Amino acid sequence: MKIIAWSTPLAIATLLGALNVEADTYDLVIMNGRVMDPETGFDATANIGISGNRIAVITEQNISGDNTIDASELVVAPGFIDTHFHWTRPIGYKLALRDGVTTAMDLEAGVYGPRVNDWYEMHSGKSQVNYGTASGHEFARTKVMQGLPDEDLLDASWSVVKGRASGTAWFEKVATLDEGNEMLAIVDEGLRQGALGVASTVGYMPGATAREMFEVQRVGANYGRPTAVHLRYTPGTVTTEANGAQEILSNAVALGAPAIINHFNNPGWELVQELLVRLRAQGHNVWGEIYPYAAGQTTINANFVKPENWVEKLGNQYEDTMQDPISGEFYTLEKYNKVLADAPATQIVLYKMDPAAIPDWCRLPGVTYASDAMMLPGGWNDEPRWDTPYEKIPNTHPRLAGTRGTCLRIARELGIPLMHVLAASSYNAARHLGETGLDSMRERGRLQEGMIADITILDPETVRDNASYAQGTLPTTGIPYVIVSGTVVVKDSKVLKDVNPGQPIRFPVQEKGRFEPLSVENWDGA
To answer: Are 410 and 364 a contacting pair, CB within 8 Å?
Structure first.
């Protein structure tokens, strides 16, 4: 017998660790995958053992489990995180899962502040992905300016449609001091209830003054939480788009607060990206998101698509830029005016950028990928139901189903490093949100021992989007397994029904809010 002398504590610990790896049986084992972790740069073939909802071990040793996934020739990555996801319903989450998403949060529209608790309770035990939301500026305005009942203000799936159809004061009226204080108190209440930050669609609300936007961000800053913003003037010109970003970023710097620039894949994106990179280098927690499409989607009563702006100022024509996602037909001025009068919350697809820029967006340093997945109105169990065939779901923008699949396909075709795409899909958002003190994001977006087992397994040679503007609900293919909190939710590219391991992404509820009413000296034009 050959005797090996183990003379140091490290050597003894290494031996004992190897023996424990061989001896333990895990709840779930992923074998032979190419394990990639964007935070550490780890990229190697390894086996993963999962116990409960956490990654227990990543090792080259053979391990065994109650259930096993053979990930040979597949990439094992942190579960994808979407911070801009409006369709917070079972069928929306089902499509997100096929695109590799394990956490979907609505940080742009969010929830009416006093109903944040209700929104989380609606999801509890019934969500296939992790879920989170912000406290919505637009809904506070709708409540104060339009008097919309609280029961119509639960989340974006109802509130955007009902609020934007309720009148015009929500977007065009300039708030008095009393109205401003009421709005800010509503936003604050959402943060008190644990909302992830402030959501602002100020680009839809020309009545919101620069002072109002500053004070909205101040409410978030009181908690150290980000304000995520659809910029003023978006979509606009290379000057106005950048000016919109400069407003939010200068406010953030002055307040010492985090900020998110929503979907800045618009004119002026180059300068917006440079601002973000330079500010991060100075220690500011600011970041931006893109989706890889030349068109966006919005409601037809958006202020920026009025003829005086979209046609006369920006030089566009409805006939080749504004599309009905259901029929595929393009609008005329006559049709625009009719639909605007009859159904002002009707959704439209709006072509606004040159597709040639999409690869440049996908490779931007520090960017996050976020779908801006649009919703259909309705309650948790309303149509379309979970088991509706993908091709039978009413058509919508392909970014709902294909954002990550598109970026992964483009990366493969153009040689963008896979690790970059995985970071933009997962780690980048988790890192920035974790820096706000959000513990649940400090243990996601990473593939490391001890982290939550949110995992996406993909085939790097075949993964691709299938959704198009003509049929926007076709799921991504090449992602055969998705694991949420240690539970397999997608198996062999099929979403498993009635498997709901999703966890709340949320701050602790505070005993009292932090907003102090403003005086006349703090409110311009009061």
So the answer is: no
The reported pLDDT for the residue numbered 20 is 46
pLDDT (0 to 100) of residue 77 = 98
Alpha carbon 312 to its chain centroid, in Å, reads 33
**Collapsed DSSP state (helix, strand, coil) of residue 42:** strand
In angstroms, rounded to a whole number, what is the distance separating the alpha carbons of residues 195 and 227?
A: 11
pLDDT for the residue numbered 489? 98
What DSSP designation does 14 have?
A: H
Residue type, 396: T
**The residue type at 249:** L
Q: Among positive and negative, which fits the CA dihedral 485, 486, 487, 489?
A: positive
**CA-CA distance, 264 to 290, in Å (whole number)?**
6
- CA gap 301, 340 in Å, rounded: 6
Facing residues of 34 across strands?
45, 75
DSSP assignment of 70-128: E-TT-EEEEPEEESBB---SHHHHHHHHHTTEEEEEEEEEEE-GGGHHHHHHHHTTT-S
> β-strands 130-136, 101-111: how paired?
parallel
Q: At what angle do helices 238-255 and 210-221 cross, to 10 degrees?
A: 40
Q: Name the DSSP letter for residue 508.
A: P
Residue with tokens 């198996």: 491
Calculate ∠ Cα 504-478-128, nearest 5°: 20
**Residue ranges, the chain, pLDDT below 50:** 1-20
Best CA proximity match to 132, nearest among 73, 188, 194, 71? 194
Contact 141, 177 (CB under 8 A): no
pLDDT at 417: 98
Q: Which residue has the tokens 């709840």?
A: 27
Distances (CA, A) of 116 to 41, 92, 150, 371: 37, 20, 12, 22
Backbone angles phi, psi at 266, to 5 degrees: -140, 175
Segments of 185-240 assigned E as strands: 198-200, 227-229
C-alpha span between 363 and 365 (Å, rounded): 6
CB atoms inside a 10 Å sphere around CB 101: 31
Tokens for 205, please give them: 């609300």
For residues 455 and 76, the answer to whether their CB atoms sit within 8 Å is: yes
- In the Cβ-directed half-sphere of 179, how many Cα atoms lie within 13 Å? 21
The predicted pLDDT at position 158 comes to 65
- Point out which residues pair with 29 in neighbouring strands: 49, 68
Termini Cα distance of the chain:
90
| Alpha carbons 240 and 232: distance in angstroms, whole number | 8
Q: What single-letter DSSP state applies at residue 377?
A: P
- Alpha carbon 385 to its chain centroid, in Å, reads 22
Rounded to two decimals, the pTM is 0.93
